[in-house]
Amino acid sequence: MLSRRGVIRLGAVAAGAAVVPGTAAALGRRGRAWADVTTPPPFSVPLSLPEVAVPVRRTATTDYYDMTIRDGAAEILPGVSTPIMGYEGRFPGPTIRAEAGRRVVVRQTNAMMHETVVHLHGGLVPPGQDGHPADAIAPGAQRRYVYDNRQPSATLWYHDHSHHMEAEMVFRGLAGFYLVDDRRERRLGLPSGRYDVPLMLRDARFDEQGRLLFEMDDFRYRNTLLVNGRPQPYMRVDGRKYRLRLLNGSNERYFTLRLGEGDGDAMTVIASDGGLLPAPVTATGITLSPAERVDVVVDFSRYRPGTQVVLHNADGTDEATASLMRFDVGRRVPDPSRVPERLGRAHDLGEAVATRDIEMKLDLSIGQFVIDGKTFDMDRVDRQIKRGETEIWRVHNRDVQPSVPHNFHVHGTHFQVLDRNGQPVTGHEAGRKDTVAVPIGGDVRLKVRFDRHLGRYLYHCHLLDHSSMGMMAQAEVIG
Predict the structure, then answer these.
(1) Residue 72: how many CA atoms within 13 Å on its side-chain side?
(2) CA 264 to CA 98: how far, in whole Å?
(3) pTM value?
């Protein structure tokens, strides 16, 4: 059974191990890579797409889903059965496709031996539906999550948010896509159907038997890159436009994405965390910290049939981490899709009435990550915010020695990023955001406003190993 807090120990930057059945034999082999003979060559495994969940019942207003959270096994590496935790026992979990303004009700049954809780990341939902760790589902119990989807079309995702254990449980597979569509977006003519492809990017580490090996803050040795649960796969594409919904589902790894060789071929950025940008933006490199999403349109008709185009990770340090997947371009086909000059509405939260500072740091004296000098306490309110009022939050990363990256995620709203280290942000960061990278020794400034619900919402580092070790706090929205 998973321990409540895991086993934490300190290295140069806090590191530890949480023990689950089947992994104990592999612990203590820190830094040892899995044997090359068992690692498939890059681009030898076909891409898989997550199964799309089917409602068990539909009414005039609501789609109902039943989902079981359980232990399972997945063939992540060819010919190897890897124990996982999964929604419906899948890795990653089923994709839920929702319609803006139409309610979704998901009944989650916990069939595992330990508690869990489900957070809809990027969802504008009441606190009781947000997946707060205080609202855990006990083993054998059920919980109904009600999502009204009163928000713009966007690429969201759902994942575990258990107290102190979210890092390990997401690492072992408790994550899936939740895609919100709407009529307005469909009228734009963007690539759709099988040309609208969700891609969950993440890293992993395996032991010699092919089991996922979790050690807290172990990002240096999570050196197998996965896309939709497959190692460095290939995807056959037609010679036409595709919409790629890119999610960084890693616990700690950043990705800087480049398509093709050299400085990279152009990708058309159309959306960020919270939905469509006001206008498309051309980019040759896109950096995503953990939990960030970006939607891009790639026109594969510009390549000759037979061309192989690699999606690179410019932050990679070796062959294993420098490329994510390959697109194998086929024949050109008719393409009625387009990318219009105008997409969504600008996200401007107006004038701020207050400014707050938030400090993120590894406290070596206690061996835990802290926000404003404190570790998370779900019974403590760290700040109160009046509903409907805009505030500026200056978020500082104080970890220079040792240097530790952080990012910042706020539940229950979408914020506006003003600048990083005094420089205005561009590209996908100028859109609706719920997660943003905070530079080592630097800061970001955000405009934050809670417009809808009263109650408590979390804010935390979404390098999940950090939040599991205390780098989380909560705000109370008051009337």
Answers:
(1) 20
(2) 33
(3) 0.92
- For the stretch 165-216, pLDDT in tens is 999 999 999 999 999 999 999 999 999 999 999 999 999 999 989 999 999 9
Residue 447 scores a pLDDT above 70: yes
